[in-house]
C-alpha cells in the first residue's frame, strides 16, 4: 500500500484542504470558511495524503463533549483502501467525545454502510435536509463504546 499521511488542518495546508474538499463534495465550504476553521478551537479537521498527493479529508466539530462530522470524503481514485477509516480513527482519538453525530444523504448507501461498520446507528431522519437535489438526511449517532476500529472489521 502507498504511504498514507494524515495531518491536521493548518494555514499551511488550508488551500489544498479546500481544493480537496471541492473535488469531492459539490457543497464543499470555501477556502475562507476553512481558514476560519483553523482558528476555531472546536474544529478537528485532518487532510489525508497518499504518497504526498491529497486523497481525502475529515471535518469535525467537538462541542461540550459531543462531536459532529461535518464532512468526510475521499477522492474516487483513493477509495476502498481504508483512508476514510484512518481519517475517522484520527478524528476519534483527537476529539475524545462522549457522543458522535452525523447526517448523511438517505440515498448514500455506501456511506451509511461505512458508518454502520464503525458502530454508528440510525437514530432519526431530517426531512428535506439536502438541496440539489432535495433529499432527506439520515441522522446517525455513535456511542464511543460501540466504536469498531476498521482493522477489526477486515
Question: What secondary-structure arrangement, pairings included, does this model have?
Answer:
Elements (H helix, E strand, L loop, with lengths): L3 E5 L5 H11 L6 H9 L3 E8 L2 E11 L2 E9 L8 H13 L3 E7 L3 H10 L2 E10 L4 E8 L7 H4 L1
Parallel strand pairs: 4-5
Antiparallel strand pairs: 1-2, 2-3, 3-4, 5-7, 6-7
Could you characterize the architecture of this molecule?
The chain is built from 5 helices and 7 strands, in the order βααβββαβαββα. The protein has a 7-stranded mixed sheet with strand order 1-2-3-4-5-7-6, sandwiched between helices. Helix 1 crosses helix 2. The radius of gyration is 15 Å and the shape is globular. The chain starts with a strand and ends with a helix. The mean pLDDT is 93.
Summarize the structure.
The chain is an alpha+beta fold and 154 residues long.
Labels describing this entry:
single chain; 154 residues; alpha+beta; Aminopeptidase; 2 domains; seven-stranded mixed beta sheet; 5 helices; 31% helix
Structural class: alpha+beta
The CATH class designation of the largest domain is Alpha Beta
User: Strand content of the residues, in percent?
Assistant: 35-45%
Strand order of the largest sheet: 1-2-3-4-5-7-6
Mean pLDDT: 93
Helix content: 25-40%
Q: The CATH topology of the largest domain is what? A: Aminopeptidase
Give the termini distance in whole angstroms. 15 Å
Can you identify the CATH superfamily of the largest domain?
A: Gcn5-related N-acetyltransferase (GNAT)
